[in-house]
Specification:
The complex is a heterodimer of chains A (267) and B (400). Chain A is of the alpha/beta class and 267 residues long. Chain A contains 10 helices and 10 strands. In chain A, α3 runs parallel beside α6. Chain B has 2 domains: 281 residues, ABC transporter involved in vitamin B12 uptake, BtuC (Orthogonal Bundle), CATH 1.10.3470; 105 residues, no CATH class. In chain B, α3 packs parallel to α6, α4 packs across α5 and α5 packs antiparallel against α11. Chain B has 400 residues and is mainly α. Classes of the chains: A alpha/beta (267), B mainly alpha (400).
């Protein structure tokens, strides 16, 4: 009987954590065809923390992000944002998709892409006013791209493209920032600039979730980590979850070929 | 005659039809832009071919009910229903099976078109005597159009334009970054549905003017043409509308003086002429501009290589290089450098030396990305940085 009480209490506590969490997914399963890309994933983000999703290729990292934002429809599972259903809380989330997911020859300028971050706020017919432009320019300033505002996006380098995507998310002024491989194929200066912006977001109380593939930088960049390989292998603060054993479990035999610096893994 | 037609002096009906066709062209250009940017241009081809069975069946039904089989609104309703069914089939095949959209379009387009032709052939053998004119739906014919038809055309086109104006933001977002659109709470499914609805209306209303085989050109050619002239989506929309409008206008006007000529091909040819001009002569993306740009770059490269050869005391072998340098008075026809040429050569060599230092030094990483073998280093570095670089050059400072 007493054991029952304990588990009830633990469950109640877990439930309370989920309700308070900026983004919590429970039992999320996505499959393309018959094999699941992610299976029954539970993930509860800590408010005001930077969380990395880490795992081998094909582990379902991007899928987890997209399913958590319901960009793709999951087979099963629920997503809550501060305890509310996602649909009602879309405005609180800013999403930075993979850079390669769009056609950069699209006829649009840097400032126009950033303004897209405010389409939700502008609605269908709201005029783009000076204050919106100013907000977009401030977002560009934070990523060091003001000089490029009127450039066609096709003229940008990979790192600059990534900064523009981040600026679009910043223009949304959201509580939760969700980024899909923000450091993939960008130059070192951009990586530094992006991480500075993300840390700044965290320090002002925002929550950051990013798919990350460079194991060496996880302890430097992030507070929490989710080790994923179709299922969650381990999750929690980097000091507890980012251990040699857990990495071994997530990557299996592939750890030797993965870019891992043994010094950086805890334990 | 053509001048009269173009200035709308061929009578009330012809004038109305011409204006209606122009409005349809604008609507098609505008709606087609988003289709083109969403990279789903060919879906409209499936939609248009899928109208044919509807036209035939509507004719049969109207005749069977004792009415006029050629009543245009009735025929267009039939076309809309069968086009919608075709569109749903494409959607279903694309999302529910492993078939790609291209394969689904090919399958639906041919099946519906085949079915339509069979129905039309059967109608030809019917003894009702009203069949004449149905073939006008294939290639377009404004010849027999009446006042009411023209008004229907104009009103639908205006409605489409208004709808696109209202939905321009979600349409643009869905075309550029569908994942982001979905994540920020726009329903991609509904945006696409609205876009296909708009395209369906344009197609069905345009059947009589352009014909089902060529309507895809009126949707796509203006957008592709407009893309040559601008790098902004909003401007592509406006220019595409203008190109479509001109195509529709000239096409219908020409058809008014030559009723035997199908309207569709004329509309398409007018649009194509504008496309061809743009392809060749647009300043940013045109063929001519890129050829000129390439040649200018090539000449700069030759000049630079020639100067470096001079500075190092090597002979210049390439005829083009010699010609260019001779023309600029840097060398004499026999290949000997002039005083001017020697100064320029020394300058080029210094520039090259500075660049190689900058590119080897990681602290100049940002500047090094600007290296193209031609840009003078003074354009990239500040005077302070330049002094820093020069201080590391062992050789005495040369001419600047």
């Amino acid at each position: 009987m007493s054991i029952q009480l304990v588990t009830d209490a633990a469950q109640a506590e877990a439930e309370a954590t989920r309700v308070a969490s900026p983004l919590a997914v429970r039992g999320l399963t996505v499959s393309y065809g018959q094999t699941p890309a992610i299976f029954s994933v539970d993930m509860t983000l800590r408010a005001g923390a930077m969380t990395a999703i880490v795992g081998p290729n094909g582990a379902g990292k991007s899928t987890l992000l997209k399913a958590a934002l319901q960009v793709i429809t999951p087979l099963a599972g629920t997503v809550t944002v501060f305890g509310q259903p996602l649909e009602r809380m879309r405005d609180r989330i800013a999403y930075v998709p993979q850079r390669a997911s769009v056609d950069w020859d699209f006829p649009t300028r840097v400032i126009d892409v950033v303004l897209m971050g405010m389409y939700r706020q502008l609605g269908l017919l709201g005029r783009v006013r000076a204050k919106h432009r100013a907000q977009a320019m401030r977002a560009l300033e934070r990523v060091g791209m003001t000089d490029f505002a009127t450039r066609q996006i096709g003229q940008l380098s990979g790192g600059q493209q990534q900064r523009v995507f981040l600026a679009r998310a910043l223009a949304q002024d959201a509580d939760i920032y969700v980024l899909d491989e923000p450091f993939a194929g960008v130059d070192a200066a951009t990586e530094k600039a992006i991480i500075a912006v993300l840390k700044d977001l965290r320090d002002t109380g925002r929550t950051v979730l990013a798919v990350h593939h460079d194991l060496a930088t996880v302890p430097d960049y992030f507070d929490d980590v989710v080790l994923l390989n179709t299922q969650v292998i381990a999750a929690g603060p980097v000091a507890e979850a980012f251990t040699e054993d857990n990495l071994q479990a997530a990557y299996g035999g592939r750890l030797t070929t993965a870019r891992v610096d043994p010094e950086s893994a805890v334990g | 005659m053509l001048a009269e037609a173009l200035f709308l002096q061929l009578g009330y009906n012809a004038t109305l039809v011409t204006l209606g066709a122009a409005l349809l062209g604008i609507a098609a250009g505008v709606a087609g832009t988003f289709l083109f940017l969403r990279k789903r241009a060919l879906v409209s081809d499936a939609i248009s071919h899928a109208t044919l069975p509807g036209v035939g069946l509507a004719f049969v039904v109207m005749v069977a009910l004792g009415g006029d089989g050629r009543w245009l609104p009735g025929l267009l309703m039939g076309a809309a229903v069968s086009a919608a069914i075709g569109l749903l089939c494409v959607q279903w095949l694309t999302t529910r099976t492993r078939l790609g959209e291209d394969a689904a379009i090919g399958a639906i387009l041919s099946v519906f078109f085949g079915l339509g032709i069979v129905i039309l052939t059967v109608i030809q053998t019917m003894r009702v005597g009203q069949q004449a004119g149905l073939e006008g739906f294939l290639l377009g014919s404004t010849a027999g159009m009446l006042r009411n038809d023209a008004i229907l055309l104009a009103v639908s086109a205006a409605a489409v334009l208004a709808l696109v104006l209202i939905l321009r933001r979600p349409l643009e977002l869905a075309a550029f970054d569908p994942g982001y659109a979905e994540a920020t709470g726009w329903s991609l499914g509904r945006i696409d549905l609205a876009m296909m609805g708009i395209v369906l209306v344009v197609t069905v209303v345009g059947l009589k003017v352009v014909g089902l085989i060529l309507i895809v050109a009126l949707l796509i050619v203006p957008a592709v043409t407009a893309r040559f002239w601008t790098d902004r989506a909003g401007h592509v929309v406006i220019i595409a509308g203008a190109v479509g409008g001109v195509s529709g206008y000239v096409g219908a006007a020409t058809s008014a003086i030559a009723p035997a000529l199908p309207t569709g091909p004329i509309v398409v040819l007018v649009g194509f002429s504008i496309f061809l001009m743009s392809l060749l002569f647009s300043p940013g993306r045109g063929v001519l501009a890129s050829v000129l740009l390439h040649r200018r770059y090539q000449r700069r490269v030759h000049m630079r290589q020639g100067l470096l050869a001079l500075a190092q005391g090597q002979p210049i072998f390439e005829a083009l290089t010699r010609r260019l340098m001779c023309r600029d008075g840097l060398i004499l026809p026999d290949g000997v450098a002039t005083a001017e040429g020697q100064a320029a050569a020394a300058k080029a060599l210094l520039d090259e030396t500075r660049w190689s230092l900058v590119r080897a030094d990681n602290s100049f990483a940002v500047a090094a990305t600007r290296y193209d073998g031609l840009t003078p280093i003074e354009d990239v570095l500040t005077p302070d940085q330049l002094r820093d670089v020069d201080s590391r050059i062992a050789a005495p400072k040369a001419v600047t």
